[in-house]
Amino acid sequence: MLKRSYDIILLFKEYILLAFYIAVALLLLATNQTSQVRAMRAGLLSATGALQDVFGVVPNYFALREENSVLREQNLTLNDEVNRLREARLENIRLHRLLGLKDRPAFRYLSARVVGATSQNLRNTITIDRGLDDGVLLNMPVVTADGLAGRVSSVSGKYAIVHLLLHRDVRVSARVERSRVNGIVKWTGGRSLSFANVPTSFDVQEGDVVITSEFSSMFPAGIRIGVVSGTRTVPGDLFRAVDLSPVVDFDRLEEVFIALHTPDSGRVAIDQRP
Amino acid sequence: MRRNLILIALSLLVLLVQTLIIPQIAILSIVPDLLLIWIVYVALTRGQIPAMTTGFFLGILVDILSGGDSMLGLSALTKSVAGFLAGYSYNENKTAQFLSGPQFPLVLIFVSLVHNLLYFLIFLQGSDLSWRTTILQFGLPATLYTVALAVIPMFAFARHYRT
């Protein structure tokens, strides 16, 4: 009996092994957010992040000159805008005080270099050279000078992986800057985003800028996400289909900034109450 | 034992190249899958079980390196299936012939297609992205790019086995 079982196992060993591997893979799919798996990720990220840091120097060197010229131009324009915004901010503070409104906290930003990128099988991520040692935590927002780029999804001592907006797991609570219409930004494949859950009667037009809203506990409010590139109404549907072009150029990410923002624990607690 | 250690070392090297260098040659976000090429090579030279095992462990490493998404285990599943399917082509008397002939890219096309179909079928669960559109926009081009890249080692094998 035992010999017969052994013979059967030998005969079908490839199938048995395949079934075992599939079972383990499915188990991992079901339990992949445990602390042991996170620790494994962090360990591997430290090793590969360091290697990506080394290999990342070569392609960047040749683009430095052009980048310098572009940055000098941007610097001039931004200086001018900063001066005008400073005046507007002072006026805003005076009006807030008059109305007795709570001040919104300013955020600290930590700059980071992109040392690696993955865009395999729709998993669009970048690796940056900042980690736990620099104060980076899971789910911290990542931005560029243009707008929202993504959020931190995995972090080790010196490196972190960022899920870009172009990822199936990233959804952002957002609103139209002009008409204050609320919705959810999500990825629709390629380089496109959609602004979902917008009723057909609400005011959204081509060219409108979409920003993060106060409803999100993960992203600070007011960060640019994209520009409405088209809207269409589907007959019989209560919601309008709104296409967004992201403001960030995801093909040219070299430097990003991590907003050292952690969700307000009081707010998270009240949101999670049944 | 020595052969297995060499296999492990080369597999890790292939993973490093896939992670560090292959993204530099992306075309419209499409990258070739060097890991699949390696798995098919292992299948044709060593058989089904080594190819499945290589695919499983490389898949887990790829999933871990993809950040904290909810799909840890997906690449392990698809790549072990890829290794299993590619292993059906193993013939210890015809290894050189298969590596240097049309069998290598043909097996790779079939394995890559099945891999991508299965991958996106699971990956897109709970997402609004259309499976059909994703296969046409990403799955098929990725397969073609992978096979195009495989032509380089194929010619190298052909030259090696004919001298």
The whole-number mean of residue pLDDT values of chain A reads 80
Order of helices and strands of chain A: HHHHEEEEEEEEEEEEEH
Major beta sheet of chain A, specifics?
A: 6 strands, antiparallel, barrel
The span between the termini of chain B is 29 Å
Could you give a short account of the major beta sheet of chain B? none
Describe the global form of chain B: globular
Strand content of chain A: 25-35%
Q: What's the β-strand tally of chain A? A: 13
Distance between the termini of chain A: 57 Å
Overview of this protein structure:
The complex is a heterodimer of chains A (274) and B (163). By secondary structure, chain A is an alpha+beta fold. Chain A is built from 5 helices and 13 strands. The longest helix of chain A has 43 residues, at 57-99. With 163 residues, chain B is mostly helical. Helices cover 75% and strands 0% of the residues of chain B.
Quick structural summary:
The complex is a heterodimer of chains A (274) and B (163). Chain A has 274 residues and is of the alpha+beta class.
Secondary structure layout plus pairing:
The complex is a heterodimer of chains A (274) and B (163).
Chain A: H1 2-11, H2 13-30, H3 35-55, H4 57-99, E1 109-120, E2 123-128, E3 141-143, E4 148-155, E5 160-164, E6 171-176, E7 182-187, E8 193-196, E9 198-199, E10 209-212, E11 224-233, E12 239-246, E13 255-259, H5 265-271
Antiparallel strand pairs in A: 1-2, 1-13, 2-5, 3-4, 3-13, 4-5, 6-7, 6-10, 7-8, 8-12, 9-12, 10-11, 11-12
Chain B: H1 2-20, H2 34-46, H3 48-65, H4 74-86, H5 95-100, H6 103-123, H7 131-162
Helix pairs in contact in B: 1-3, 2-3, 2-4, 2-6, 3-4, 4-6, 6-7
